[in-house]
Structure formats: structure tokens, C-alpha cells
Design brief:
Keywords: Metal-binding, Zinc, Zinc-finger. It holds the Pfam family MSS51_C. This protein has about 625 residues and is an alpha+beta fold. Helices cover about 30% and strands about 20% of the residues. The chain has 3 domains: about 15-240, no CATH class; about 280-335, no CATH class; about 420-630, Rossmann fold. The strands form 6 sheets. It has an 8-stranded antiparallel beta sheet. Helix 2 (about 40-55) packs parallel to helix 5, helix 12 packs across helix 13 and helix 12 runs parallel beside helix 14 (about 485-495).
Length: about 625
Amino acid sequence: MDVHLKYAFGRFQEQFGSGPGLGPGSGTNLMKIDGIAPPFIKSVYRAAAALYRTDPWRRLRPGHLFGVRVGKDSDWSGKKQPFSCIQFIGGDGGDIGLYMFRSENDAKKMTGSRETIRVPNVEVLRVTYDLDSVMLPSNKRFVISLALEVSGEDRYPVIDVGRCTTTGELQFRNPTLEELRFVYAVMKGASLLHPLLQQDYGAAPKWSRVTYFEPFIETVDVQWPAEMAKGNDLVAVTISHPPGRGYQEKYSSSSTSTPTKHSEAQMEETFIDVKSNAAVCLRECMLCEEKVSREQSVCCGHCSAVVYCSSVCQKQHWKEAHKDVCGLYRAMMEREEELAMKIFIFSCSAEQPCKWLESLGIHQKGMWRRKCNCYFHCPFGLLPVPGGLWDSWGGLDENEYPHDSPFHNHFRDGISSSVFLSGWLEYYSLRSLPLTSPVADILSHPLTIYYILTALNISSKNLLLKNKEVILHYIGPEGELDWMPAFAEIGHLLHGMGNIHIIMVGPEVPTNLSGTTSGIGSRVRVNLVRGLYQDEANYLPTPHVIMSLNCGLGSYSCWNGALDLIKSTNVPAYFTNESELSCSSSKQVLRAAGLHISYPVTPNPFRSPVRIFGTSTNFPSYSNCFLLGVNT
């Protein structure tokens, strides 16, 4: 009896004088939903935890209503969106949660100045973050049995659909499987988009304590987990404030479900002014290597992949070589849509690197100095070291770069607090980074390393899970030598696992740094060794894995000796390439060296989102774009 009273009083105390909300979670159990599976529930709880980490309640109040749209109407039963309006409650007291309404009118009816109004026959879907101490025993057992992810330190989401009867009584039911799928997409989208809201300082009356925001409408692509996907891996989630801002769907044979915004002026996709900078943006003729401006250059009309200075060179090259590969090049160019990362909200075209960096305010600053040729005269690894992390990231806003701190309270399947990542969207969400931040362009290197060691190579993953050290031989570092602050993220991601010893070997390592060791946090240390890998490998600790990022296997003859060594040692080795063309060249070199490609060519989920351009070609190229492996 005492235990029962303690539980009942705890529930009452949690709710007493609570303000907006319909009370704590009703005790519904997602396992009772027809057709649901444990992986589906785990994905929902991870999405809820990701939303909680972004703390929308810090700025948002129940009076801030948002329009929401997930995919197209035809994606849902009844050819209609299940919910069209959401609000966050708990920012000014009471239950912490997310409410979803069938219409904006329903949301307005239920939103009072201090309390949530019980309107008869109006349904509201709730995601209520209940304290662990006041959860129903049945829900506690459910959470423990599935090892579901905690939100914050001690809260778990309870998801139900509430309805007030004409007598004022509240009734609750479990959401349907489709409603739960909708909730997942909204939580993932909201966690990424609400930080982009800009306060409108001129709209609020002087006496008002409520924050006003500028009109807002943004779309982000959310990746469905495998258990939720229905033909499409991505779905477009659009959130607007205030609700009711217009949308227009364009139906085509394409499978995309991204809605097109028509209530705002079309945003410029690139920051490059072709006319004013045509003299700066020089290309190189594929045949005669003559420099030519972009405006004066000629491209193959069939594949659009190759650049020429004139139609004369184009015709000659067609006869000599291009005719045999034009079809292949066209197929490579058609992958542009697939490889582009559309989740980011900044210009991802760096045809003129200096102009791109200037548009972001980071040109010739911090680690970004290696992203253009302005510091080519300074040897790799010897850029002047700025004062602190803020300077290293080029003076980006405090919320736009990862701080030197762990990932707080991250638990996956109850095993440990280690972080296993599947892509940029998950990383940005965990770090609460806005999608306007360009840090993925530099973080592509350390996160590709982490992804290979924890997702692709089973032996290294097992060593890390056993709290042991993994030795990595990293061949051919260049710009990475000046990006050591970014490599600190590997240590934070390793929280709860073992250590990584990275030995960077290559001719670009400065002589005065060769032989030095630096600790990057408590779980990562880096050794620098100058020289060719085949000459130095015998003096190094035996590796568990070998890597080379943006390797350019077909561009350097010195790779021959390194590949012979990799073949003889039979150590798993992974390579990345910037484009499909360079990847094809790498495959030829590997096969010529007698190496079997055991991990096939695959797009890297942690490739840079910033497209780079060759001097003579237009192939879709991104740093660390494609992965392949041998001896795996």
C-alpha cells in the first residue's frame, strides 16, 4: 500500500499546478499496436531522444503553433496528412511534450492562455516526456525489456492519442502504426529545423514576455529507418511558422515526395557570380590543356562531363579517345542527383573555393585555410596554430561547430554510451548542430575513419567494444595534418569503448614533425612519420587496419610498393575516392597489383557535402565520396 501511495503521490505532485497539458502519459503501450516490431519502437525512441536533446522548450511556448507536412498527401491513407499542426508544451511549466493536431483550428481551440482547453471530440496526439520515477510499472518493464533510449537523464516518451468526451472525460488510445510513422518523421524534422527560427525583435509589444519569431518555412529530408521505409529511403518534412503558409506539390514520374515551397522567393542555390568572376574561374581543355574561362569553354553535348577550349579540340578528342568512354561518362554524370546531399542548408558548390569560403565568412581562417590554395606555400602540418577551438573552426558561431565535449547521455540498446553513426543527419542531431553549419566538409575525414572502424570492419569494432586499442596505418596525409582539432571528435564518439592509435605516414609529413606523437583527448593518439609507406612500415607497430582517404591511386607511381606490401600482409585496407572516375582508376590499379576488391565500391555516408570541380571535367566529385576495400 505504501508503494502504491508513493507512486500515486508522485504522479499527482508531477501534475499539480502544472499549466498547459492534458496530464502525464496515459500508460499506453506501443507493443500493443498491430504490426509493430521492436526495431520500429527503438527508432521512435531514438528520434524522441534526439528531439529532447535540442531542447525546443527553451524558446517555444504553447502559443507558438507550427504547420507540418510529411511527404505528399498520397503517401498517407485517405490521401491526407494525419496531422497538420504541432505545438511544444512545457516551456512555461507543466508536462514537457509535443502535441499534434488534425488542423490549425483544433490547435487554436485547445490552446488557452494558461491551460490546455478540453474541447469535446477533438483528438490530439501527444508525445509526453515522463520522468522515470512516475512512469507506470508496465511501461518501465517495457522500456527495460527493449533497452529503449532515454531522453535526457531520466525521461522517456509516452505516445498516445487523447480525446475529450462531451462530459469532459479524457479518453486515450494507442496511435496507429501510420500515425507513429508520421510522429517519427516530425520529431526528426523538428529537431533539425526549430533551431533555425529567428527571433523577431520588432514584432513583440514592449510589455510582452513572449518571444516572437520571423515567418519561417523550411524543408529537410529525413531518412526512414529500414523498418519504416516504404519504397523511398527519404521523406521531405516541412515545418512552417505560423501555420498555413502555402505549399505546392509537383507530381511527376519521380519517386520524390519533396514539396515545393511557393510562398517564399526562390533562394539562390550558389554564391558564384559567373560574370564578375569569369576570369578567375578557369578550366583546362582536356586535349591541349589550354586555360579557358567557364563562359568560353565547350562541353561534350552528350555526357557534359569533359571540358574543351573549342569545338576543334572537342572533335579531335572524340575521334582519338572520348568516343569510347562517352557512354560511361554519361552514366557517371547521371549519379549527380544521388550523390548530392540535400539535407544541408548552405551552398554546397565550391567551383571557386575562395568565393565559397568567403560566402560563409571563413576564408583564410583556421582549419579552412586548407580548403583553397591561398596557403599553398605553407607546408602541410605547419599552418600557424590559432588560439583555441573557436579560432580553429574559423570563428563560426558557438552553436555551429562541435565543442570539445562528450556526447551526453547517449545510450543505444542499453549496452553502453558508445555512439554508432549511420550518416550526417544523425551526427548533426546528436551534436545539436544546425544544418547551416559547413563543418561536415572537414569532419568528413575523421568521421569516415570512425565509420570504417565501427561499421565496416568487424575485427576493429570488436576490439573497441572490448575496450582494447586499434592500430591504424593512415597513408598519405596532407590537409589532415592541419585538422587535428577535428580529429578530437573520434575520441568523443569512442566514449565507452577502447582507444585508437593512428600512425600517419607520407612524404608530406614535415621533417620537424616526423616521429612526434600527440594525444587528442584520452582515447586517440596520433604518430607522424615522414616517408613512403613501403619504406617505413617495417619500423611501425603491426596495424589492424590500413586506410588512405582521397587516395588517388592512379595518380602516383609510388603506390606500387605500398600496394605490394598491403597484399603481402593481408591487412584489411580501405580507400576513398572523390569521384566515380577516380574510383574506376583505383580499381584498375588495385587489380593490377593482384588485390581482390572485397568491399565493393559504395557511396560513403560521411562524404563531404561540398561539391568540388576538376579542371577538365564536371564529374560529381566530393571529398571521400566513394569507399572500397581489399583484404576485408
